Amino acid sequence: MREKVAKLGVQREKDFMYYVKDGGVWKVPRKQPGVEKGRPEKVADGGFAMDTNYIYFVDKQGDVSRAKRAVGGQKRKKAARAKKKSARKASRKTKAKGGKKKAAKKKKRR
Protein backbone atom coordinates (compact mmCIF):
# COMPACT_ATOMS: atom_id res chain seq x y z
CA MET A 1 0.00 0.00 0.00
CA ARG A 2 2.69 2.50 0.97
CA GLU A 3 6.46 2.51 0.74
CA LYS A 4 9.13 4.62 2.42
CA VAL A 5 11.00 6.89 0.06
CA ALA A 6 13.39 8.70 2.44
CA LYS A 7 14.21 8.16 6.11
CA LEU A 8 14.51 11.68 7.49
CA GLY A 9 13.26 11.36 11.08
CA VAL A 10 11.65 14.81 11.14
CA GLN A 11 10.54 15.84 14.65
CA ARG A 12 6.94 17.03 14.25
CA GLU A 13 5.54 19.94 16.23
CA LYS A 14 1.87 20.13 17.19
CA ASP A 15 1.13 23.61 15.79
CA PHE A 16 2.57 22.97 12.30
CA MET A 17 1.32 21.19 9.18
CA TYR A 18 3.92 19.20 7.24
CA TYR A 19 3.91 18.47 3.50
CA VAL A 20 6.22 17.25 0.73
CA LYS A 21 7.08 19.51 -2.21
CA ASP A 22 9.85 19.15 -4.82
CA GLY A 23 11.55 16.34 -2.89
CA GLY A 24 11.75 18.23 0.40
CA VAL A 25 9.71 18.43 3.60
CA TRP A 26 8.11 21.79 4.42
CA LYS A 27 6.19 23.03 7.45
CA VAL A 28 3.70 25.87 7.83
CA PRO A 29 1.90 27.11 10.97
CA ARG A 30 -1.70 25.90 11.26
CA LYS A 31 -4.39 28.51 10.72
CA GLN A 32 -5.75 30.03 13.91
CA PRO A 33 -8.44 32.67 14.39
CA GLY A 34 -7.07 36.20 14.62
CA VAL A 35 -3.54 35.19 13.55
CA GLU A 36 -2.03 36.07 10.18
CA LYS A 37 -1.12 33.36 7.70
CA GLY A 38 2.39 32.01 8.34
CA ARG A 39 5.22 31.49 5.88
CA PRO A 40 6.30 27.97 4.82
CA GLU A 41 9.72 26.86 6.02
CA LYS A 42 11.84 24.04 4.58
CA VAL A 43 12.61 21.44 7.25
CA ALA A 44 14.59 18.77 5.37
CA ASP A 45 15.75 17.94 1.86
CA GLY A 46 14.80 14.39 0.85
CA GLY A 47 16.87 14.29 -2.32
CA PHE A 48 14.39 12.22 -4.34
CA ALA A 49 12.40 12.79 -7.54
CA MET A 50 8.62 12.83 -7.24
CA ASP A 51 6.37 10.78 -9.54
CA THR A 52 2.90 12.11 -10.41
CA ASN A 53 1.36 8.62 -10.07
CA TYR A 54 1.95 8.69 -6.29
CA ILE A 55 0.98 10.93 -3.37
CA TYR A 56 3.79 11.80 -0.96
CA PHE A 57 3.34 12.45 2.77
CA VAL A 58 5.21 12.61 6.06
CA ASP A 59 4.37 9.52 8.15
CA LYS A 60 4.24 9.12 11.95
CA GLN A 61 7.96 8.37 12.19
CA GLY A 62 8.82 11.63 10.36
CA ASP A 63 9.89 9.84 7.17
CA VAL A 64 8.62 10.48 3.64
CA SER A 65 6.33 7.75 2.29
CA ARG A 66 4.31 7.40 -0.87
CA ALA A 67 1.10 5.62 -1.88
CA LYS A 68 -0.39 4.89 -5.29
CA ARG A 69 -2.73 7.71 -6.38
CA ALA A 70 -6.37 6.72 -6.94
CA VAL A 71 -7.38 7.50 -10.51
CA GLY A 72 -10.91 8.00 -11.77
CA GLY A 73 -12.84 7.63 -8.53
CA GLN A 74 -15.75 5.25 -8.05
CA LYS A 75 -17.62 3.82 -11.05
CA ARG A 76 -21.27 4.79 -11.39
CA LYS A 77 -24.21 2.73 -12.57
CA LYS A 78 -25.42 3.52 -16.09
CA ALA A 79 -29.00 4.35 -15.00
CA ALA A 80 -27.85 6.92 -12.44
CA ARG A 81 -25.50 8.51 -14.96
CA ALA A 82 -28.29 8.86 -17.58
CA LYS A 83 -30.70 10.37 -15.02
CA LYS A 84 -28.10 12.91 -13.92
CA LYS A 85 -27.34 13.84 -17.53
CA SER A 86 -31.03 14.47 -18.37
CA ALA A 87 -31.44 16.63 -15.24
CA ARG A 88 -28.42 18.68 -16.28
CA LYS A 89 -29.90 19.25 -19.77
CA ALA A 90 -33.21 20.41 -18.27
CA SER A 91 -31.48 22.94 -16.04
CA ARG A 92 -29.54 24.32 -19.01
CA LYS A 93 -32.78 24.80 -20.98
CA THR A 94 -34.39 26.84 -18.19
CA LYS A 95 -31.29 29.02 -17.89
CA ALA A 96 -31.33 29.70 -21.64
CA LYS A 97 -35.00 30.74 -21.60
CA GLY A 98 -34.68 33.28 -18.84
CA GLY A 99 -33.55 31.49 -15.76
CA LYS A 100 -36.90 30.98 -14.05
CA LYS A 101 -38.99 27.85 -13.86
CA LYS A 102 -42.73 28.05 -14.38
CA ALA A 103 -44.84 27.74 -11.25
CA ALA A 104 -47.20 24.75 -11.11
CA LYS A 105 -50.92 25.60 -11.23
CA LYS A 106 -52.79 24.90 -8.01
CA LYS A 107 -56.07 22.99 -8.06
CA LYS A 108 -59.04 24.67 -6.41
CA ARG A 109 -60.80 22.81 -3.60
CA ARG A 110 -64.56 22.77 -3.32
Q: Please report the total strand number as a whole number.
A: 6
Shape: elongated
Order of helices and strands: EEEEEEH
Q: Please tell me how large the radius of gyration is.
A: 25 Å
Please list the strands of the largest sheet in the order they lie side by side.
1-6-5
Largest sheet: 3 strands, antiparallel
The secondary-structure class comes to alpha+beta
Low-pLDDT stretches are none
Approximately how much beta-strand content do the residues carry?
25-35%
Beginning-to-end CA distance, first to last residue: 69 Å
- For the residues shown, what is the average pLDDT? 83
SS field, number of helical segments: 1
Helix content: 10-25%
Salient structural properties:
110 residues; alpha+beta; three-stranded antiparallel β-sheet; 6 strands
Report what the structure shows.
The chain has a domain at 2-68. It has a three-stranded antiparallel beta sheet, with no helix packed on it. The protein is built from one helix and six strands. It has 110 residues and is an alpha+beta fold. 8% of the residues are buried.
